[in-house]
Amino acid sequence: MTIKIPYYPGCTLKTTAKNFEDTAKLVAGVFDYEFDELYRWNCCGAVYGLSEDNVMHKVAPVRNMLRVKEVGEKRMLVLCSMCFNTLKRANYYVRRNKDKLEVINAIMYLENTTYDGSVEVVHLLELLRDEIGFDRIKKAVKKPLRGITVAAYYGCLLLRPSEIAIDSVEQPTVMEDLVEALGGKVIDLNVKTECCGSYQTVKRKDIVADRTNFIIGEARKQGADMLITSCPLCHFNLDRRQKEAKKRHPDFKEMPILYFTQLMALAFGFEEDKLGFEPHYVDPRPLLKERGLL
Amino acid sequence: MAEKEVLNEEEKEPQAKMIPVFIMGQKYEVPEGSTILNAIEYAGYQLKKGVGCREGFCGACATVYRLPGDYKLRGGLACQTVVQPGMYLTQIPFTPAQKAIYDIDEVKPDISTFQKFYPEVFRCLGCNACTKVCPQELKVMDYIQAIMRGDIELAADLSFDCIMCGLCTMRCPAEMAQYNIALLARRLYGKYMMPKPEFVYKRIEEIEQGKYEKEFEEIMSLSKEELEKRYTERDINFDIT
Predict the structure, then answer these.
(1) What is the domain range of residue B61?
(2) Numbers of helices and strands, H then E, in chain A
(3) Domain ranges of chain A
């Protein structure tokens, strides 16, 4: 029986990371999960506001959780690491600060209901690990990922602060376990929780190009052919900024960066045109063809 | 004499109950049931700005008001909103707002156009102050949010009834001009995304191929008398639906 799960996409998954959303829906479908997109949703807040008193910046994420409660649901599936972090932290904040939640509810007086902290924010990786399980994933594999070595890169948003982490803050393994379930070889990337340079990418491309050079360089040293992530911003920085990294570091060698869902869709035997490789700066297809996976 | 007095009594208009309102802080007694616009004029103001069609369509008479004992700042159109006792009000006849200049033939129907011309869209906090004040009861925040994720069709749809009164823009903490941004969304939708009316193109093609030339030539060749005869004898009961 199909399980419908309330789904919050966020703006990036509707624009530059459409391939993340499309492949995530494909792989969830393999396990009879259907993403039930919220009938109304707004920006997650984009960056969690660190100022404790500034409730205004927490209205947007809380309003999305209220939408879930409004339709009588208890959890909300999120794919984008940025949205996940902002939503889950805002949820954690209002659960601990009832007075601030009251202020936020008072600002949202046009809504038909109030928010009470009851909704759980769930990342797709958590759903795969805790509910679907790696055994079922293993069984669904049609094309084991033999011949490639993968590095899993988490960045910061899935793991920090520890209160909202989906895995060990220092030694996460969920994506490594996933790659192994898909029949691939995975390295224990030494820089998997380091910073990609984040929004510096807007004004200081050089900083991000250097981070990209460093992270991909470390992955390559450890023998990786490609790198997976769940964050559209990490993806943008690690993929697009390879152009600048090449200019600044003559010995830099390109590496394909994939969303973990693209790798899953590949292993589950979906056709090439469903994998969403077109928008990538570094095209993963030559490598995958060379290794006999496409 | 007595008869005349009775007539006078009948001619006398019934006295409306008067209620107090505060127009820009000054107290006036105005007839109950008046619109804000009528109340302002009743109080003696002659409006040259802040008034337009008087029918709720043009968006010129934006007004903000508060009711006694209520902290909420409400928005309305002066020509459509009825005064209430103790109401504090003022008109906002004009809203200074960003209005981008663009050539609709040169822009793309996607998010990049908004990033270029209205980057402030992406400062939306989701506070919903715009929706609260909208006299058309539009989901203003929702259409801005739709633009933020590139859903131009949804933005065009949700903003369709906007009359551009400017109240959302006056309330926005992100300082954007929602109504001009929505106008761009509707123009992009109309120009690039809306299904094309195939019947119009077909008819234009027929005209260009001269399908109706003969009939026009015949009409043009008629004398004045013949034209008048045709006009008076025409079938006026044809079904226009």
Answers:
(1) 11-91
(2) 13, 8
(3) 3-124, 134-290
Q: Are B115 and B152 in contact (CB under 8 A)?
A: no
CA distance A6 to chain B (A): 19
- Tell whether B227 is covered by a domain: no
Closest CA to A107 of A40, A60, A141, A71: A60
The string of pLDDT tens digits covering residues A222-244 is 999 999 999 999 999 999 999 99
Q: pLDDT digits over B69-115, tens only?
A: 999 999 999 999 999 999 999 999 999 999 999 999 999 999 999 99
CATH number at residue B18: 3.10.20.30
B119 touches chain A (CB under 8 A): no
Of A9, A15, A56, the CB nearest to B125: A56
| DSSP calls for B109-166 | SSHHHHHHH-GGGGG-----HHHHH-TT---HHHHHHHHHTT-HHHHHHHTTT-----
The answer, for A42 touching chain B at a CB cutoff of 8 Å, is yes
CA distance B214 to B119: 55
Report the C-alpha gap between B184 and B109 in whole angstroms: 10
- Residue B30 CA to residue B32 CA, distance in Å, equals 6
Is 3.40.50.10950 the CATH classification of the domain at A3-124? no
In A, which residues are within 8 Å of B149 by CB distance? 9-11, 14-15
Quote the tokens at residue A87.
């939503």
Reported CATH class of domain A134-290: alpha beta
Q: Which residues pair with B46 in a beta bridge?
A: none
Write down the residue that tokens 């929505």 correspond to.
Answer: B182
ipTM of this complex: 0.86
Instruction: Please tell me whether the overall predicted TM-score, pTM, comes out greater than 0.90 for this model.
Output: no
Smallest Cα distance from A121 to chain B, Å: 19
